[in-house]
Specification:
The complex is a heterodimer. Chain A is an alpha/beta fold. Chain A is built from 15 helices and 21 strands. In chain A, the strands form five sheets. In chain A, strands 1, 2, 6, 7, 8, 9 and 16 form a seven-stranded mixed sheet that branches. Classes of the chains: A alpha/beta, B alpha+beta. The complex binds flavin-adenine dinucleotide. Chain B: It holds the Pfam family Fer4_8.
């Protein structure tokens, strides 16, 4: 097997991976960097982010406000030391993006403009119309080209980490165009492989978001943290699951039930006002908005459609000019996909799986417990998102912690630690054998697409917006069954060149691991907090559960769950307050 | 429900086993609202695991699923079945690119071209974070904003007659990207880009057929960008004769 060496190996070239690569290159141009991605960098799902990235920049704002919004938004499951440095570093990161050419939307003065976002007390979300992630991704990708030490391996599918005696020394990856496996040896490894929304059937996440990196780290012994916290975004298009950004509501959009009533006022978020008020009504946090939909549905006040029940997003009063200037993609997507031009028509929407708050356990330096292994972006859990991420915090997170991972990995790589090459060769050979086994199997009793449907349906039924012991247990049982049956699948495509049957099978392998950590962590957390709502344990229980769930890999069965204390520095756990009592200002 | 069966005629080519590309037809039961990508995904999941194509976001923004649909380069996620009333749709890999496998084309040439135009801000002097943001008015932003919208789907290369004839041509998307940076008020890198942009294979190679702009799914108008760039170079050439000019 061909061996490729680099000082720092980065798995994933989305926003987080690219930011990491630039940070390594800037920390020390002499360090060689291998940047691996299963898709060309600009295809990474960061491109889909629409609304914006939060960072304190305006004189009416301050870091404390951003800190408190994030901590209470996360229902106090956030680590406050992490949030502190996050809110402090993000404005600088966003300015760097500005210097690198990101086409931020502007005020007439020429300063960057900000827009309101859910759960934020002050308008602080930087945006580039409604294609913020797209512009950030392309800006980072294009900027990365200027650093000669960044060597890209586009369309390389990473399979396994190479670990020995508590440290990580590389990975195996398949060059997709030839099907050849390569051994990548590095002195530090950073995983930036993104989220895992595809473990659910109805999601805003693209095809690439299958949790591969989470599964790799987990199998290598790194715990996955707070996996039960899955964010439902309140406004997805029925059928496709395409997102209509929270900025729709930031700009003043309403959510209406079947009677044309702004139902959020019935869920502690009111009173209704004609123009948006920060932290109230449609600018409440995502967990509470998605939960309100669930209650409306139970009350029979949603609208049935072929693609499931919906409510309506009303943007008509914003007018064509504002919609075209601020939300052009939203207009295009709604018109094309559900035949509803928001300028004149109500747009049907329903909650949709959007974001994993949990992920690979790291400290504030983006380091995992495995020496030499770092993680950043959506695949990681630092944690700044706690039990519920605030919209527009994750684009910032991938910059701040991507940069930290890059600096940390650069520093670590200089130690120059390596493992005996025979040992790495043996590990790589095991990894290759694991892949070859898929090719060798001839008799299949199960098919990957069928198992995927079974798995994702179980997740929706058992780990949805509201959960209870029985539904979660049912999901856990199905996952165990799917895992068993997965042993009986065989590749139908035995070729080498760009074999997507193989990659979808490897992705399924990862999805099973990740889904199992979500379900088992959800089962064990017998309280309700943020995005994890238990019908059989309706209260938040700080006594027992002001703790991070840590799911540890167990080769013989379901993950072992233990707990880690939350870091609390200055904000004592309290009630989350939205609506009139939050005293938010007008965002008109 | 509102189902309809379409005949999807897909160009297949697996270099390890096929002498040459051939068409394979799938009869796909489709929902009315579907796009061509949904039909391909149905084939992949239910009918034929060996079909390969690229896709990810399913929302017109990642640029993965550019392909020829009934002879025109389109995003498969933006090609709605209702716009193909005959119920027969032919899907092929993007023209003007080598086929890697089935609908997957080799992108190396484009990626090299994109890198060659120095697509990043080249400032007069590095600005520090402490200095804050560059001021850029909405009008200054507008001067280049349209050219930032390219998703690299390569539909434009698939229709470009110049690129079809001579692949040394830098081509629409890469030239539009160079123009995007040249027009950005934060950038002073135009001269550095000129050895690629203003070379024989650069803007002067474009014959201004404008097909690229017609097929662009994001309305980037690369032909317009190239025209503007040519015009700017024309002005440079003329002013070089004025007193104080470079000549
Ligand atoms: C529709 C949508 C809208 C959003 N809007 C916002 C917003 O407005 N504001 C906000 O803050 N956040 C938003 N988010 C969230 C945010 O966009 C993501 O959390 C963030 O972009 C993730 O970035 P990432 O770099 O971690 O992962 P990604 O961009 O998903 O990149 C992952 C990378 O890992 C690579 N990879 C994965 N597996 C492998 C493997 N096995 N081998 C090799 N490479 C691999 C992929 O190829 C890819 O390059 C949105 C998310 C979605 C889905």
């Amino acid at each position: 097997m061909q061996v490729i060496e680099a000082d720092v190996i980065i798995v994933g070239a989305g926003g987080a991976g690219l930011r990491t690569a630039i940070a390594v290159a800037e920390a020390d141009p002499k360090l060689s960097i291998a940047l691996l991605s299963k898709v060309y960098p600009m295809r990474s799902h960061t491109c889909a982010a629409e609304g914006g990235a939060a960072g304190v920049i305006k004189s009416n704002d301050n870091l404390e406000y951003h800190f408190h919004d994030t901590v209470s938004g996360g229902d106090w499951l956030t680590d406050q030391d992490a949030v502190d440095l996050f809110v402090n570093e993000i404005p600088k990161e966003l300015l760097r993006m500005e210097h690198w050419g990101c086409p931020w939307s502007r005020e007439t003065s020429g300063n960057v403009a900000v827009r309101p976002f859910g759960g934020m007390k002050i308008m602080r979300t930087w945006f580039a119309a409604d294609k913020t992630g797209f512009h950030m991704l392309h800006t980072l990708f294009q900027t990365s080209i200027k650093y000669p030490s960044v060597k890209r391996f586009d369309e390389y599918y990473t399979v396994d980490l190479l670990t020995d005696d508590g440290a990580c020394y590389g990975c195996t990856a398949i060059e997709m165009r030839t099907g050849q496996m390569r051994q990548f040896r590095g002195k530090a490894i950073v995983i930036c492989s993104g989220g895992a929304g595809k473990i659910f059937p109805f999601t805003t996440n693209g095809a690439v978001k299958t949790g591969d990196g989470m599964a790799m780290a987990y199998r290598a012994g790194v715990p996955l943290k707070d996996m039960e916290f899955v964010q439902y975004h309140p406004t997805g298009l029925p059928g496709s699951g395409i997102l209509l950004t929270e900025a729709c509501r930031g700009e003043g959009g309403y959510l209406l039930n079947k009677d044309g009533y702004r139902y959020l006022q019935d869920y502690g978020l009111g009173p209704e006002t004609p123009t948006p008020v920060l932290k109230a009504m449609e600018l409440g946090p995502r967990d509470q908005l998605s939960q309100a939909f669930w209650h409306e549905q139970k009350k029979g006040r949603t609208i049935p459609t072929k693609w499931g029940d919906v409510v309506h997003l009303d943007l008509r009063h914003l007018g064509e000019k504002k919609i075209d200037e601020r939300l052009p993609l939203i207009r295009e997507l709604s018109a094309k996909y559900v035949d509803s031009d928001p300028v004149t028509t109500l747009v049907p929407v329903r909650p949709v799986v959007h974001y994993m708050m949990g992920g690979i356990h790291t400290d504030i330096h983006a380091a995992t417990p495995l020496n030499g292994l770092y993680a950043a972006g959506e695949c990681a859990c630092v944690s700044i998102n706690g039990a519920n991420r605030l919209g527009s915090n994750s684009l910032g997170e991938l910059l701040v912690f991507g940069a930290r991972a890059g600096r940390g990995a650069a520093e670590y790589a200089k130690k120059g630690l390596t493992a005996p090459s025979e040992r790495l060769d043996a590990l790589a050979a095991d990894s290759e054998a694991r892949v070859k086994a898929w090719f060798q199997r001839t008799q299949a009793t199960d098919r990957v697409p069928d198992l995927k449907k079974r798995l994702t349906t179980a997740m929706e039924d058992g780990c949805g917006i509201y959960r209870d012991e029985a539904t979660i247990k049912a999901a856990c049982d199905i996952i165990v069954d799917v895992r068993e049956r997965f042993k009986n699948v065989a590749l139908e495509d035995k070729s080498s060149v760009y074999n997507t049957d193989l990659y979808q099978t490897l992705e399924m392998d990862a999805m099973i691991e990740v889904a199992q950590t979500v379900a088992v962590s959800a089962l064990e957390r017998r309280e309700s907090r943020g995005a994890h709502q238990r019908l059989d344990h309706v209260k938040r229980d700080d006594e027992a559960f002001l703790k991070h769930s840590m799911a540890h890999y167990n080769p013989n069965g379901e993950p072992r769950i233990d707990y880690l204390d939350v870091v609390i520095t200055k904000s004592k756990p309290a009630e989350r307050v939205y609506g009139a009592r939050a005293g938010g200002q007008s965002a008109a | 429900m509102s189902e309809r069966t379409i005949e999807l005629e897909v160009l297949r080519y697996r270099p390890e086993q096929d002498q040459e590309p051939f068409f394979q037809t799938y009869k796909v039961p489709c929902e009315e609202e579907w796009v061509v990508l949904d039909a391909l995904n149905y084939v992949k999941e239910e009918m034929d695991r060996t079909l390969s194509y690229r896709w990810s976001c399913h929302m017109f923004v990642c640029g993965s699923c550019g392909m020829m649909i009934d002879g025109e380069p389109k995003l498969a996620c933006k090609a709605f079945l209702k716009d193909y009333p005959t119920g027969k749709i032919r899907v092929e890999p993007l023209s003007n690119f080598p086929i890697e496998r089935d609908l997957v084309v080799v992108l190396d040439d484009f990626v090299e071209k994109l890198e060659s135009v120095k697509p990043y801000i080249i400032p007069k002097e590095e600005r520090t974070v402490e200095q804050g943001e560059y001021l850029q008015t909405p009008a200054q932003l507008k001067a280049f904003k349209q050219y930032t919208l390219c998703i690299n789907c390569l539909c434009c290369y698939a229709v470009c007659p110049q690129y079809g004839l001579d692949e040394s041509f830098v081509g629409p998307a890469a030239l539009a990207l160079a123009h995007r940076y040249n027009m950005d008020s934060r950038d002073l890198g135009r001269a550095a880009r000129d050895d690629v942009v203003a070379a024989a294979e650069g803007i002067w190679h474009c014959s201004f057929v404008g097909a690229c702009s017609q097929v662009c799914p994001k309305d980037v108008d690369p032909a317009g960008a190239i025209q503007q760039a040519k015009f700017a170079h024309g002005i440079d050439y003329l002013t070089s004769f004025l007193p104080g000019g470079k000549r």
